[in-house]
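Hi there,

I know you've been waiting on this one. I reran it after we fixed the sequence typo, so this is the corrected version. Both the input and the resulting structure follow.
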Amino acid sequence: MAADLVNAGDRLSDYGQLLEWAQGAGAISSATAESLRRVARARPAEAAAALQSAHRLRNVIHDVYVAVVAGRAPDLAALNAQLSRVLPRRQLEGNHWIWLGAERDLESPLWPVVLAAATLLTSPDAARLRICAQQDCGWLFVDRSRNGFRRWCSMADCGTREKSRRRAAKQSTSVARRAP
């Protein structure tokens, strides 16, 4: 979920798109999304501020994950600050977790993302974080392939483009060698 926000962050240009993304990513329910839409219509300046918070969080997670991929110690201060803000909002209700006030707080779609970002960093999957090898992509993903050698965010998109680019370069090189 956290890498998904990093990858989607540039395309989130209004609060409604943030809600759609959060609902699709499983960060909020459809009922919470609808409640937040109503709140956002009543408080557009706060909705705009929440969208800016999403972009800042995207940058924080990006920087932390890129450091991990590069084998450097990440600067966790900003992520820890976010964690200290959102963790008190998590509470057990019956046999499951809930987010207190999620249907009223315009930043609540980000709360599960903060938790997911930290959870990934503390899991064995942190060693499987990758950056797409396609030249113009840069998306982050967790390599869950059996052998751990996945190179592209998506074989259907970036993998195919990169393989096509290599094939064209190879053909161009072989044609150049055959020319008199």
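Quick highlight: Helices lie at 2-8, 15-25, 30-42, 44-70, 77-86, 111-121, 155-178.

Best,
R. S.
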